[in-house]
DNA sequence: ACCCAGGGTAACT
DNA sequence: AGTTACCATGGG
């Protein structure tokens, strides 16, 4: 069966390929296939939402949640647009901050360090093929328990380089409970960030990615090279007040804006 | 051959 | 507290 999910400001291509998740592919015009939460999905972009193709009834709630359909992005974009730069960044864009699994997000952004989106996607694909479970449509993301039993050498098929030891350390600390996402979710931003940084290879930026993309902490702003460029160029005194509690969402629009529309300007002489 | 990629660590001032 | 070489790998 097909199921329609209504949602404004949801552009699948932008949302799935803007560097917040790494497990989707465009397999035909306006058709996207991918995995999240151990589930395979095939999606079609619609005018005011998306259609789940050949799906089950109980998939609907999962994907509604995944695409954060409860949150009023139109209202947010309207508020952001009080600022001229953000108005330009939001124009024509429909990026939603997905509700991803914390562990998958943690490992994915450990892999992201000093790396590019294309290769990140490949490493994660090999991670799932080698250590995840085969399900309809692909492979699930491996559990912390599964990865915690491995050594960095066991990850050599991934060709993840120096990050292999970080992946294992993260899996072991999550598996042992030393890093507990449910507890971290209750902490204020700075304490939550520090709690994640006990993992080798996790610094401020990766921690903020876990908070924003994995725990839906919309106030978290990962400071990658592009956002640093945007801030120094447009906002030397910080993001404008109109972002409110949603600086993380504004950040995601600015990130895509910087990379796709402002690359020349922002990388000129730095 | 060189530079960069959704950074972090360790070893320096 | 603030800088800097180095970290594996692959693509431009």
Q: How would you explain this protein's 3D organization?
A:
Helix content is 46%, strand content 11%. β6 and β7 form a beta hairpin. By secondary structure, it is an alpha+beta fold. It is globular, with a radius of gyration of 18 Å. The protein has 14 helices and 7 strands. The longest helix has 15 residues, at 117-131. α12 (225-234) packs across α13 (247-260). Among the domains are: 3-70, TATA-Binding Protein, CATH 3.30.310; 102-214, Orthogonal Bundle (Endonuclease III, domain 1), CATH 1.10.340. It has helices at 12-16, 59-66, 73-80, 84-90, 102-111, 117-131, 144-148, 164-176, 181-184, 189-196, 204-214, 225-234, 247-260, 263-267, and strands spanning 3-6, 24-28, 31-36, 39-46, 49-52, 134-135, 138-139. The chain has a 5-stranded antiparallel β-sheet. Strands 6-7 form a two-stranded antiparallel sheet. 40% of the residues are buried. The chain binds a DNA duplex (13 and 12 nucleotides) through residues 19-20, 109-110, 112-120, 122-123, 159-164, 166, 200-206, 209, 222-227, 255, 259.
Topology:
Elements: E1 3-6, H1 12-16, E2 24-28, E3 31-36, E4 39-46, E5 49-52, H2 59-66, H3 73-80, H4 84-90, H5 102-111, H6 117-131, E6 134-135, E7 138-139, H7 144-148, H8 164-176, H9 181-184, H10 189-196, H11 204-214, H12 225-234, H13 247-260, H14 263-267
Antiparallel strand pairs: 1-5, 2-3, 3-4, 4-5, 6-7
The protein binds a DNA duplex (13 and 12 nucleotides) through residues 19-20, 109-110, 112-120, 122-123, 159-164, 166, 200-206, 209, 222-227, 255, 259.
């Amino acid at each position: 069966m097909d199921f329609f999910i209504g949602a404004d400001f949801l552009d699948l291509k932008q949302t799935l390929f803007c560097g917040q998740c790494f497990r989707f592919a465009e397999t035909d015009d306006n058709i996207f296939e991918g995995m999240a939460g151990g589930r395979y999905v095939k999606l079609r972009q619609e005018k005011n939402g998306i259609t789940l193709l050949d799906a089950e009834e109980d998939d609907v709630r999962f994907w509604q949640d995944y695409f954060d359909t409860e949150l009023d992005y139109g209202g947010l974009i309207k508020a952001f647009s009080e600022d001229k730069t953000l108005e330009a960044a939001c124009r024509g864009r429909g990026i939603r901050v997905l509700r991803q699994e914390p562990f998958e997000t943690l490992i994915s952004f450990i892999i992201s360090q000093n790396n590019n989106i294309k290769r990140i996607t490949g490493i994660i694909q090999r991670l799932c093929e080698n250590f995840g479970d085969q399900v309809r449509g692909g492979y699930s993301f491996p559990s912390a328990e599964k990865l915690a039993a491995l050594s960095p050498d066991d990850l050599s098929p991934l060709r993840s380089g120096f990050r292999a030891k970080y992946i294992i350390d993260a899996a072991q600390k999550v598996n042992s409970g030393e890093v507990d996402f449910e507890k971290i979710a209750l902490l204020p931003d700075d304490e939550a960030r520090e709690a994640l940084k006990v993992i080798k290879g996790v610094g401020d930026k990766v921690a903020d990615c876990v908070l924003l993309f994995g725990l839906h902490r919309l106030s978290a702003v990962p400071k990658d090279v592009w956002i640093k460029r945007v801030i120094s160029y447009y906002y030397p005194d910080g993001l404008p007040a109109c972002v409110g509690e949603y600086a993380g969402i504004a950040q995601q629009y600015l990130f895509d804006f910087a990379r796709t529309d402002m690359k020349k300007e922002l990388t000129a002489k730095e």
